[in-house]
Amino acid sequence: MDTTLRLKLSIMMFLQYAIWGVWYVTMGTYLGQTLGFSGTVIGLAYSTTAVAAMISPFFVGMIADRFFANQKMLGVLHIAGGLFLFLASQTLGETGFLWVLLLYSLCYMPTLALTNTLCFHHMRDPERQFPGVRVLGTIGWIIAGLTVGFLQLEPTAVPLKIGAVLSVLMGAYCFALPNTPPRAAGKRVTARDVLGLDALSLLKERSFLVFIISCLLICIPLAFYYAFANRFLNDIGVANAAAKMTMGQVSEIFFMLVLPFFLIRWGIKKVLIVGMLAWVIRYVLFGFGDAESMVFMLYAGIILHGICYDFFFVAGQIYVNKKASPEIRGAAQGFLAFITFGVGAFIGSVFSGRIVDAFTTVDPVTEVAVLDWQSIWLVPAGMAAVVMVFFILLFNEKSAPAVPTPPAEPSPDAAPAP
After folding, report:
1. Which segment of 14-28, 145-159, 173-187, 233-247 scores lowest on mean pLDDT?
2. Cα(159)–Cα(277) distance, integer angstroms
3. pLDDT digits (tens, 9 = 90+) for 232-254
4. Which domains does the chain have, with CATH numbers?
């Protein structure tokens, strides 16, 4: 891959994830502190990306991949998304905001698969070349978070407006990307292909079924972090919370690099267990930490993000890749993404909002909502612990290969981690 192409793809990935990172982390703070939305509504707001993740495979597989050049579809989706995101930054009320954010998510989520597909199409050796390009996405997310944190924009609508501007810029930039014709033009594609239902045959093996159930269930406590961690940190007085949360993405890069070592030394089961245990520890740390003498507990909880994500979700993708035959490998990865980033994330977003409301009271003097954050965080901690015990008891490592190689055919429909 020549230098010019690498630069173009790297800029694409940087913008792709900077757009998401600039508003997604802090939206809960803006909706809760500034607009006074309930936890339930905030949870529903975060569920819009999950709904879009469930719908986007149909759009990508049955429309975008068959009829439109990739770079042109990316351009149109990002420009339209930018307009919707700007509209979301206006005062719309709860219902209006949710509908507009859903429209934006329906534009944005398909672009995750489309950017991956564009990269794979132009790379001679995706296994070696893609990680070096994809890491620019994580860097874009980090820089977006640092910018919002240091400018103290978290409780404002400005991050949404910045995201809108970046989205329009990204849309315009996409038209300058290399031509990438639709990969499935002229081919018959069914809903079964799009959802990866051919991978259902793997569920006949008990351990794989246990793994899928665990993935679905662990996404419920996971949603608490994405929807409410930034608001929590701001509520208890942590300065530059958005900037400090980028330590999680730095951690993600580090643990991605060392993951193969642990897969070799420990095997897949122990790595997955450590990933789930990290979720339990993270939420306990949040529950008992504070912004003063125990602030180190909060930082430790943020830094655990690398283990939380890489040791379960990335390791899980590797496990699925090794379990599936080459004929259904792409289908299996698509099915995993649908279960985790779609169904699991949706249930988790809605559930987390209801739990936050259950532990929210109104101060009778100031009439300000007071959240019992310790009780809130102990709920996902307990849930993650139950999932971990379920997995330990029922997952049989003997039937689960633990070769630490990345997917030979990366699925463009699997949503990457933020």
Report:
1. 173-187
2. 33
3. 999 999 999 999 999 999 998 89
4. 1-182 (1.20.1250.20), 192-412 (1.20.1250.20)
The DSSP line for 351-401 is: HHHHHHHHTEEE-TTT--EEE-HHHHHHHHHHHHHHHHHHHHHH--GGGS-
pTM of the prediction? 0.84
Nearest 5°: phi and psi at 369?
-70, 130
Long-range contacts of 23-27 (CB under 8 A, 24+ apart): 23/85, 23/159, 23/160, 23/162, 23/163, 24/49, 24/226, 24/418, 25/145, 25/148, 25/226, 25/229, 25/230, 25/242, 25/245, 26/148, 26/153, 26/154, 26/155, 26/159, 26/230, 26/242, 27/159, 27/160
Q: How far apart are CA 150 and CA 224, in angstroms?
A: 24
163-184 exposure pattern, b = at least 16 Cβ within 10 A, e = fewer = bbebbbbbbebbeebeebebbe
Q: Grade residue 406 by pLDDT with cuts at 50, 70 and 90.
A: very low
Query: Average pLDDT, stretch 63-75?
Result: 80
Cα–Cα distance list, 299 to 231, 259, 285 (Å): 15, 22, 9
Express each pLDDT in 349-368 by its tens digit: 999 999 999 999 988 887 78
Residue matched to tokens 């008891």 = 393
Phi and psi at 226, nearest 5°, equal: -65, -35
